[in-house]
Amino acid sequence: MHRRTAFTLIELLVVIAIIAILAAILFPVFAKAREKARQSSCSSNLKQLALGQLQYIQDYDEMTTGRRSGTAADFHPWYEQIQPYCKNTQLLSCPSDKGGEHRWQAALAYGSSYGWNCRAGGTDAGIALALFTKPAETIMYIDHDNACAKAGRGCACGCGGEPNLNARFTVGARH
After folding, report:
1. Residue 4, Cβ neighbours under 10 Å: how many?
2. pTM for this entry
3. C-alpha to C-alpha distance for 130 and 76, rounded to whole angstroms
């Protein structure tokens, strides 16, 4: 009696088909887990930016950074103003941001995936912290895909030019 030592072609094809089916089932699960990890990293970045902003506010007599400071020739957006407190430019990039540089970042050495809420006290000069009537309900930063419509003027607020606050957070927000 002759003993078989190898697999037949049919057996190999069945094994490959089973592996392919399992892979097709598991790939979406892995993709969801990867996106959840990106979302967690993004939330951590937003928290660190907020902490940097709060440290800035404490050092500058309870005044926020605002959207930007300086003149057109000496432009400093909010993220450059809090950089001494964060010390990490990687905080400015959402892992899910696949858009590359936003329109308003083109002339800068680095940009941000996040926008300062210009409708909640994000004037150019900043405002006093005491003027926030509902600080616990006020969104400071948003992870947003859309640069401001005032891009040619170097806004950097991330509002997408949308005047309606609720619409701004649903149109273009990544997470």
Report:
1. 6
2. 0.70
3. 24
Q: Counting every residue, how long is the chain?
A: 175
pLDDT digits (tens, 9 = 90+) for 106-152: 434 456 777 777 666 556 677 888 888 888 887 788 777 654 434 44
How far from the centroid of its chain's Cα atoms is residue 157's Cα? 13
pLDDT, tens digit (0-9, with 9 covering 90-100), for 43-100? 999 899 889 989 999 998 998 887 666 666 666 777 888 889 998 888 888 888 776 5
Q: The tokens of 86 are what?
A: 């964060």
What does the angle CA 163 – CA 166 – CA 167 come to, to the nearest 5 degrees?
65
One DSSP character per residue, the chain reads -PPP-S--HHHHHHHHHHHHHHHHHHHHHHHHHHHHHHHHHHHHHHHHHHHHHHHHHHHTTTB---SEES-STT-EEHHHHSHHHH--GGGGS-TT--S-S-GGGTTSSS--SEEE-GGGT--SS--BGGG-SSGGG---EEEBS---TTGGGT-----TT---HHHHHHSSB--
